[in-house]
Amino acid sequence: MRLIATTAQETEALGGRLARAIPSGQPQALQVQLHGDLGAGKTTLARGFLRALGYTEVVRSPTYTLVETYEFGAIIVVHADLYRLRDPDEFEALGLRDLSTAGHVWLIEWPERGGHGLPAADLDITLAAEPSGHAIEVRATTAVGAQWLANTR
pLDDT per residue over 66-95, tens digit each? Predict the structure, then answer.
């Protein structure tokens, strides 16, 4: 799926669509990898995702805390920003492997900084600024991701 978001609200709306389409009953954590330069809209998309699940507080990028978790009953969202990692081995020190279980959904900003320590993404999202707005490309990279993406249409 590819679209152009001309406003932050449109980027948030896509995050909301993804949250409402989360596939249920998965035996392991679901992972969404968010790629893009600073200011491309990664956190904006995450904000829309969290708001659709009922979160009403301010959503900030976890650039300094690295990881924030949000509990919504049976779903726990792990929002991570790996921008500050200097070495992929630092990913292991975060202890996120413990959160790779059923009911967890990971939203990972700057996943390339996690190296090979990250599980495979179900959805791979690339955001890029263009003259007409932010181009957003969502690709399913697993069968679960394909089901998830199909549910958003």
Answer: 888 899 988 999 998 888 777 766 666 676
